[in-house]
Design brief:
With 198 residues, this protein is mostly helical. The protein is 70% helix and 3% strand. Keywords: Membrane, Transmembrane, Transmembrane helix.
Length: 198
């Protein structure tokens, strides 16, 4: 049950990020040019935006909720309700639990590595002005988290943009860190299930 709840939380946080990226996060954002010249519009996405780690975490959470949690609850209910032992069904579910745990581990590693590789980057204001909206900022690879952190380091003209980006960054960090308890819960369940099968 805890794994299902944690998976639902993860799905909600990732969905919020996806919604932001396809909506408000597309920008453009008005940037006050630091060198005293006129402001310019920055596209909400860079050319090198990578999001596969988010898809991996989303898949891991969905698998934990639907295949591990949902099918597991229905299977256990069926076993109790009809007083039958279906070892093949339980073994198949056990394999699903282990694979789900491995997918969560992959999402955890992938997310932290990808975020770490793009941490500390900055947006060059001169390049950003040259590639003003509707063009996309051309330099580097970015995760949504590292990109919007760099956007916040620029002098945003609209205070609402800054508030929305700060709020969405909290959610992005939330689903990143939530992969740790999701993995630990999945690992605990996998250990219990494997012990039961063996």
């Amino acid at each position: 049950l805890l794994l299902i709840i944690d998976g639902i939380i993860s799905l909600a946080l990732v969905s919020s990020t996806v919604s932001f990226l396809h909506g408000y996060g597309k920008g453009p954002f008005e940037i006050g040019y630091p060198l005293g010249e006129s402001s310019f519009l920055l596209s909400g996405h860079p050319r090198g935006l990578v999001t596969d780690h988010g898809h991996t975490v989303n898949a891991a959470a969905g698998t934990a909720v639907v295949l591990v949690g949902g099918v597991g609850i229905i299977g256990l209910w069926g076993l109790r309700r009809f007083h039958c032992r279906l070892p093949m069904v339980f073994q198949l579910w056990a394999v699903t639990v282990v694979l789900s745990c491995l997918l969560t581990l992959a999402g955890l590693i992938y997310t932290f590595v990808e975020t770490d590789l793009t941490r500390g980057q900055f947006i060059d204001p001169n390049v950003a002005k040259e590639y003003a909206y509707p063009l996309l900022y051309p330099d580097d690879r970015w995760t949504p988290e590292s990109w919007y952190e760099a956007v916040l380091a620029l002098p945003l003209v609209n205070g609402r943009d800054e508030d929305v980006i700060r709020e969405k960054l909290k959610l992005m960090r939330g689903w990143k860190w939530n992969t740790i308890p999701m993995f630990l819960l999945g690992l605990t369940l996998a250990g219990l299930v494997v012990r039961e099968v063996v």
